[in-house]
Design a protein that fits this description.
Chain A: Pfam families: BPD_transp_1. Chain A: Its main location: membrane. Chain A: It comes from Tessaracoccus antarcticus. The complex is a heterodimer. Chain A is mainly alpha-helical. Chain A has a domain of about 180 residues: Orthogonal Bundle (MetI-like fold), CATH 1.10.3720. Chain A is built from 15 helices and two strands. In chain A, helix 4 packs across helix 8. Chain A is globular, with a radius of gyration of 26 Å. By secondary structure, chain B is of the alpha+beta class. Chain B contains 20 helices and 14 strands. In chain B, helix 3 links the parallel strand 1 and strand 2. Chain B is globular, with a radius of gyration of 22 Å. The chains are: A mainly alpha, B alpha+beta. At the A-B interface, helix 2, helix 6, helix 12, helix 13 and helix 14 of A face helix 1, helix 2, helix 4, helix 12 and helix 19 of B.
C-alpha cells in the first residue's frame, strides 16, 4: 500500500505545493469576497451599525432577539418577508422543475428546427431582470396592459391577489425555464442509448422508460436543479421589486427586499445583517434537507455492502495467515 | 419604495435598486472599518468668499452628480455646458442617474473617496446626509451669495441647516398641482376654463364626469403621486403629518382619517377604478381616460409634448385650508476624502453661478426658490409654472430631520393597505403612526449618538 502511494507521488513531477498554487487565485478571491465579508457580517450583525456614523454601538444578540420579539420594529416586516419568500418558493419551484424537464425531453427529440427552438426557449434567460421586469410590468398593467386586452380579462395583475402571485410565478417560469431545460438536456444526453434499448427489449413503455431510465439517469442533474432553483426562488427580488413593487400591501415583498430596504435605505446595517444570517440559516437547512431527501439510497446501500464484504475478506485472510 | 425622493421621472426609479442583491455578504461588504470622520481629512477651508471672486487657479475637472432623468436633465446639461464655456479653467462633467440609485451610491462613493465634487439633494434628504457625514457645510457659499432667509420660502431655506450649519443651497421648489383635461371636461358638459376649486365643485364635477361615463380622478395606491395627494389633503383638512419639532407622528389624528377616507371614497363613489396600477392614473390622464390628476410641476414639460388639451391650476381646496405638498432641490458639496483646494473653490464658483440662473432652470419645470426671481416678469411669462407658483405660501414640505424618509415608508404602507386590501383608514393610519413613531424615536437616538 505504502509502496503504491510513493510510486504515485514520484510520478507527479514538481513540488507537492503545485496544486495549491493553482488554487491560490480562486482562494484569494473567495476569501476576499466571501469569507471575510461573511465573517465581518456576523460582527456587523452584533451592532447598531451605520458605516457613515462615528461609532457603532455594540448590541450583542439584540438584533437577533428582535426577530423573535413580536413587538419589535423589524419583526413584522421580516417575517412577512419570510412568509412571502416561502409562498413564492413553494409556488414556483414545482413549475420550474417539471416544465423545463418536459421541455427538455421535447427538445431532445430529433426534429427539424430543434436548435432554433432550443435557442428560443433559452432566449429570455439572457435578459436581465430589469428588462423582463419592466416589460412584464407594462404587459401586465391592469388598466392598460396588453395581456388583459388579448384575453379580454379585467384582472389587476399587479395590484390584486392572488393575481400578483400568479403573475410573478408565471413571469419567473417564462424567464428562467430555459436555463433549467438546458441543464436537463445535457443530463439527458449523458444517459446511454443502450439503457433505453435494453428497457425496450424488456418491454418497457414510454412511462416505464421515463421512470426507470430517464429519472435515475438524471438524478445528479435533478439534485443540482432542485438546489439551485430553490435558492434562486428564495432569493427572488427583482421581479416583485419591479413588477408589483412588493405589493399589493407588502404581500409580495420578499425577505431579500425587506433586508435590502432595511440595510441600504434605512441604513440599519446591523439589523439587516442579522436578518440575512437568519435567512441564510434557513436556506442552508433547506439545502441540507434537499441533499438528504434526494440522496441515492440504493447506491449508498451498495457502498455499505461493498465495504462490509471487503472487511469480511480481509478478516478471513488475516485468519488464514494466522492459521 | 421608501424615501420620498421626487423627480420628474420617478416612475422609472423603481428600476434603480433592482441591481442590488441583498445577500449577507453584499451587506457586509458595505461596512467600512471605521467611520468617515476618522478617516476623512478635514475639509479644506476655501478662501472664504464662497466662490464669489471666481476661480483663476490651474484647470480643474469637476464631477457633478444628480438625478435629473426627466425633461429637467437636458436643461441642467445646457446650463452646465454654458458654465463650462464661460469658465475656461473649470470643466464640469454631469452624471445623471436615478435618484434612488444616486442616494444609495453617494455615501459609498464618498467613503471610497470617489464622490463627486457637487451634488443635488431633495429637501428631506439633506439632514440625513449631513448627519451621516456625506455632505459638508457650506456657510461661506450662502454668505457669498448674500442669501437671506427673507428671499426664500421658509422651509427650503431652513432645510439646509443641520446642527447650526448650512449644508445646502436651495435651487428650486416643486409643488403638487391640479392638472385637468379640458377636452374630457367639455365632453361631460363642464366649463374647461373653470376647473373646480372647492370640495363641492370638485365632487359635482366628478359626478358630471361619471354621468358621462368617465371616472374622473383615479386614486392611485402608489407613492407617486398618491402620497403627495393624501399629504396635501391632510394639511387641507387642518392636520399635520408630524409636529413642528419632528418628534411626534400626527397623521393618525382626525384630519388624517378624514383625508384618507375622502381619497378612498373616490373609488367607492365610482370616480376611480379600484386597485389602480402603478402610473396608470397619469397614463390615463394623458390618454384622455380620466379628467383630473394631482401631479408635480415636473410634468409640465412632459404634458407639453402630448396632444391633449390640458390646463394646470393650484390644488382645489377640498378640506377648508389651502395647502399643497412641495419638495425642493438643493445644491450640496459631498465630503472629499482628499480635499483639493482648487476644486473646492471651483465647485463654489459653479454653485454660485447656477444659483443665479434660476430663471433658466424654471423653464425645466420648477419654481425658483428665490422670491425675487419668482416675482420677476420673466418668470410670470412661464404660464404653467407661474400658475403653480401662486401656491407658494400654502406649500408644505417634509420635515427636515435625519431619517424622515423611513417614516414616510410607513405612511405609504398605510394608504396602500386601505386602497388595495380594504383596511379601515383609521386603523391603517393608527398602526402605521405607531410604527413611524418608534422609527422616529430610534432615528433620533441613532443620529444623536
Amino acid at each position: 500500500m505504502a509502496a503504491t502511494l510513493k510510486g504515485r507521488a514520484s510520478r507527479r513531477s514538481g513540488s507537492p505545493l503545485t496544486p495549491y498554487l493553482f488554487l491560490t487565485p480562486y482562494l484569494a478571491i473567495f476569501v476576499t469576497f466571501v469569507v471575510i465579508p461573511a465573517v465581518f457580517g456576523i460582527w456587523i450583525s452584533l451592532h447598531d451599525w451605520d458605516y457613515m456614523l462615528d461609532s457603532q454601538i455594540f448590541l450583542g444578540l439584540r438584533n437577533y432577539a428582535d426577530l423573535l420579539d413580536e413587538t419589535s420594529l423589524p419583526y413584522p416586516e421580516f417575517w412577512n418577508g419570510m412568509k412571502n419568500t416561502l409562498i413564492f418558493t413553494v409556488a414556483s419551484v414545482p413549475f420550474l422543475i417539471v416544465i423545463p424537464l418536459l421541455l427538455a425531453m421535447l427538445l431532445n427529440v430529433r426534429f427539424p428546427g430543434r436548435t432554433f427552438f432550443r435557442a428560443m426557449f433559452f432566449a429570455p434567460y439572457v435578459l436581465g431582470v430589469a428588462v423582463i421586469g419592466l416589460m412584464w410590468r407594462y404587459l401586465l398593467d391592469g388598466n392598460f396592459g396588453i395581456i388583459n386586452s388579448i384575453f379580454r380579462t379585467d384582472i389587476q395583475w399587479t395590484t390584486d391577489q392572488p393575481w400578483a402571485w400568479v403573475a410573478l410565478v408565471g413571469v419567473t417560469v417564462w424567464w428562467t425555464m430555459g436555463f433549467n431545460a438546458i441543464i436537463y438536456l445535457a443530463g439527458l444526453g449523458d444517459i446511454p442509448a443502450e439503457q433505453y434499448e435494453a428497457a425496450a427489449l424488456d418491454g418497457a413503455g414510454w412511462w416505464n422508460k421515463f421512470v426507470y431510465v430517464t429519472l435515475p439517469g438524471l438524478r445528479p442533474v435533478l439534485i443540482f436543479i432542485m438546489i439551485t432553483t430553490i435558492l434562486a426562488s428564495a432569493n427572488m427580488f427583482g421581479q416583485s421589486y419591479i413588477i408589483t413593487n412588493g405589493g399589493p400591501t407588502e404581500s409580495t415583498k420578499t425577505a431579500i427586499m425587506t433586508i435590502t430596504e432595511l440595510g441600504l435605505r434605512r441604513y440599519q446595517m446591523g439589523a439587516a445583517a442579522a436578518e440575512s444570517y437568519v435567512l441564510a440559516a434557513f436556506l442552508a437547512l433547506v439545502s441540507i434537507a434537499n441533499f438528504w431527501l434526494l440522496r441515492d439510497r440504493e447506491a449508498a446501500k451498495e457502498r455499505r455492502e461493498l465495504k462490509a464484504e471487503r472487511r469480511e475478506i480481509d478478516e478471513t485472510r488475516r485468519a488464514g495467515a494466522s492459521a | 419604495m421608501v424615501a420620498p425622493h421626487f423627480s420628474a421621472l420617478n416612475r422609472r426609479r423603481f428600476m434603480s435598486l433592482a441591481a442590488i442583491g441583498g445577500s449577507a455578504a453584499a451587506l457586509a461588504a458595505c461596512g467600512g472599518g471605521s467611520s468617515p470622520r476618522d478617516t476623512l481629512a478635514p475639509t479644506a477651508a476655501p478662501s472664504g468668499d464662497g466662490g464669489k471672486a471666481g476661480y483663476d487657479g490651474p484647470a480643474v475637472k469637476l464631477a457633478f452628480w444628480n438625478g435629473f432623468t426627466g425633461g429637467d436633465g437636458p436643461m441642467m446639461k445646457k446650463l452646465v455646458d454654458q458654465f463650462s464655456s464661460e469658465h475656461e479653467n473649470i470643466a464640469v462633467t454631469m452624471t445623471t442617474m436615478q435618484w434612488a440609485d444616486y442616494y444609495a451610491k453617494l455615501p459609498t462613493a464618498v467613503t471610497a473617496g470617489k464622490g463627486p465634487d457637487i451634488g443635488i439633494m431633495h429637501v428631506d434628504s439633506v439632514a440625513t446626509n449631513a448627519a451621516r457625514n456625506v455632505i459638508q457645510p457650506l456657510d461661506d457659499v450662502a454668505k457669498a451669495l448674500d442669501l437671506k432667509e427673507s428671499d426664500f420660502a421658509p422651509v427650503p431655506w431652513k432645510a439646509g441647516i443641520y446642527a447650526d450649519k448650512r449644508y445646502s443651497i436651495p435651487l428650486d421648489v416643486h409643488p403638487l398641482g391640479f392638472y385637468y383635461n379640458k377636452d374630457v371636461m367639455e365632453k361631460a358638459g363642464l366649463d374647461p376654463e373653470k376647473p373646480p376649486t372647492t370640495n363641492d365643485e370638485y365632487l359635482a364635477a366628478l359626478e358630471e364626469l361619471k354621468k358621462a361615463g368617465v371616472q374622473g380622478h383615479w386614486a392611485t395606491p402608489f407613492p407617486f403621486t398618491g402620497s403627495m395627494t393624501i399629504q396635501s389633503l391632510i394639511w387641507q383638512f387642518g392636520g399635520q403629518l408630524f409636529d413642528e419639532a419632528g418628534t411626534k407622528v400626527l397623521w393618525a389624528e382626525e384630519p388624517g382619517v378624514t383625508a384618507l377616507t375622502w381619497y378612498a371614497d373616490l373609488i367607492k363613489k365610482g370616480y376611480s377604478p379600484a386597485k389602480v396600477a402603478q402610473d396608470a392614473d397619469y397614463i390615463a390622464f394623458k390618454n384622455g381616460e380620466n379628467a383630473f390628476n394631482w401631479n408635480g410641476i415636473w410634468q409640465v414639460n412632459d404634458l407639453k409634448q402630448t396632444k391633449i388639451n390640458w390646463g394646470v391650476a393650484a390644488l382645489p381646496n377640498i378640506g377648508g385650508t389651502k395647502a399643497a405638498w412641495a419638495g425642493s432641490h438643493q445644491f450640496v458639496l459631498p465630503v472629499q476624502k482628499t480635499p483639493d483646494d482648487n476644486k473646492a473653490v471651483a465647485s463654489r464658483v459653479f454653485i454660485n453661478w447656477i444659483s443665479e440662473q434660476s430663471l433658466a432652470w424654471a423653464e425645466a419645470g420648477q419654481v425658483p426658490a428665490r422670491n425675487s426671481v419668482r416675482e420677476s416678469a420673466e418668470f410670470k411669462a412661464l404660464k404653467e409654472q407661474a400658475e403653480l407658483a401662486t401656491q407658494i405660501d400654502d406649500l408644505h414640505f417634509p420635515p427636515t430631520i435625519p431619517g424622515i424618509g423611513d417614516c414616510f415608508a410607513e405612511f405609504e404602507k398605510a394608504f396602500n393597505a386601505v386602497l388595495l386590501s380594504g383596511t379601515d383608514p383609521a386603523k391603517a393610519l393608527e398602526d402605521s403612526a405607531k410604527r413611524a413613531q418608534k422609527i422616529l424615536e430610534d432615528n433620533a437616538k441613532k443620529y444623536n449618538r
